[in-house]
Design a protein that fits this description.
globular, single chain, 446 residues, Cytochrome Bc1 Complex, Chain A, domain 1
Length: 446
């Protein structure tokens, strides 16, 4: 049975139904159009991507990229906020957006017959929004509540603090939401200047997946998405050199929430695929090492997982869990033990095969969703500069060796570069905890 499974999961049969090549075009004005045509579905997911995110926010305007994203939904010359929301929802569709560290995406998922409505709405909000001062003041209160919600949610806050601790004053370490003080000072002129600087054809990628042919998408892009062609280069800062550190924040909670990890590689780095396999092995799913050893065998945590995030300039690998403060030291030791085990002992028999099978299976199942396929081709265009067949990705995963995983583990799990972030109960002795944990981190390579 295992041999049969191995044959199917490493063959083209795994992705045969998804094997048609995505297509890309660069228009004369610089806008990039990427599509993934799926003729057997009845829907289209359309995304307008801006290669700009919170890393482009100035220190005095932290949160402006995210706030601008909110304001595009608050009224145009043709539609008020309700009409924007109702335009696609009334047709069974979805209209939304998100802002991350280095991209912003506005997207719609709709029945293919209603695609013209989605195109009209997205082009309308991105080119005709009026940014009413009254709506700006109202939305400030909304975003400030969003910021406070993260502060009141330790399982979210710990990830924000982890970024801050890893990257210090670099813009990628700053919360995408910004700060209450900076958001409260934003005005209409700030938003217009930010939009004019970054929302231009050189920074635009139009991505679509579903029942839409590439030539048609190019045609509607030329007809509907009109942005300035000038482009101001973004200032880039060097990534700070990581050092061993512990960051602790007190909250009125009963558990301690932690992120333990390190800076990783950029999206295009050759270590990407070994890292994806390593992340799957350590903390993806109930069969992962961390889940089995920390939750199933010892019952130290309800939620425990690892994650990998890759950006244009850098990346990070982290492990998250929440546990009883009395079990904190043991939990940290168990995470570090897994790091050391992979570095020194490698993988158990058949572990690499099953981990790669899990990663490939998860990928293919994920791509049966048009939204995920739209995101995939957009991210490939933005971060890699080219589109890849699913079979190419599967072949790259298959090519990962145990030796490569150990090499990546030796580079990644360097005790001198580890970062531990804690959101912990008020009653914990911060100094004593830090001293004990610092010793464990320093000695983790022994």
């Amino acid at each position: 049975m295992q041999k049969s499974l191995s044959s199917s999961l490493s063959s083209k049969g795994l992705s045969q139904s998804l094997a048609r090549s995505p297509q890309e075009s660069v228009l004369e004005n610089g806008i990039r159009v990427v599509t993934d045509y799926i003729p057997y579905v009845r829907s289209v997911c359309l995304g307008v991507w801006v290669t700009s995110g919170s890393t482009d926010d100035s220190p005095s305007q932290r949160g402006i990229s995210h706030f601008l994203e909110h304001m595009f939904f608050k009224g145009t010359a043709r539609r008020d906020a309700f009409q924007i929301a109702h335009s696609l929802e009334s047709l069974g569709g979805k209209l939304n957006a998100f802002t991350s560290k280095d991209v912003t995406c506005y997207y719609a998922r709709i029945l293919d017959e209603h695609l013209p409505v989605a195109i009209d709405v997205l082009s309308d909000i991105l080119t005709n929004s009026i940014f009413s001062p009254k709506e700006i003041e109202k939305e400030k209160r909304v975003v400030i509540e969003e910021i406070r919600n993260v502060q009141d949610s330790p399982d979210e806050l710990v990830h924000e603090l982890f970024f801050q601790s890893l990257y210090e004053t670099h813009p990628i370490g700053v919360s995408t939401l910004g700060e209450e003080q900076t958001v409260s000072r934003l005005c209409r002129d700030d938003l217009l200047k930010h939009k004019d600087r970054l929302y231009n054809t050189q920074n635009m990628v139009i991505a679509a997946a579903g029942n839409i042919e590439h030539e048609k998408m190019v045609e509607v892009t030329l007809a509907n998405f009109h942005f300035p062609e000038s482009s101001a280069p973004s200032d880039s800062q060097s990534i700070p050199v990581p050092t061993l550190k512990i960051k602790q924040v007190k909250k009125d909670i009963s558990q301690v929430h932690l992120c333990l990890g390190i800076q990783a590689c950029p999206y295009r780095a050759p270590q990407r695929y070994p890292l994806l396999v390593l992340d799957t092995l350590l903390g993806t799913g109930m069969s992962s090492r961390l889940f089995q050893n920390i939750r199933e065998k010892l019952g130290l945590a309800y939620s425990v997982y690892s994650y990998l995030q890759l950006f244009q300039q850098t990346g990070l690998f982290g492990v998250y869990l929440a546990t009883d403060p009395a079990k904190l030291t043991k939990a940290v030791e168990l995470i570090l033990n897994e790091f050391v085990s992979i570095k020194k002992k490698g993988l158990a028999k058949d572990e690499l095969f099953f981990t790669k099978s899990q990663l490939k299976g998860n990928l293919v199942l994920t791509l049966e969703n048009t939204s995920n396929r739209m995101i995939r081709i957009a991210e490939q265009e933005i971060y890699d500069g080219q589109l890849h067949l699913l079979d190419e990705t599967i072949a790259a995963i298959d090519a990962v060796s145990e030796e490569q995983i150990q090499q990546v583990a030796h580079w990644l799990f360097d005790p001198e570069r580890l970062c531990l972030t804690l959101v912990e109960p008020q009653q914990i002795d911060e100094q004593k905890t830090e001293q004990g944990l610092m010793e464990i981190l320093k000695n983790s390579s022994r």
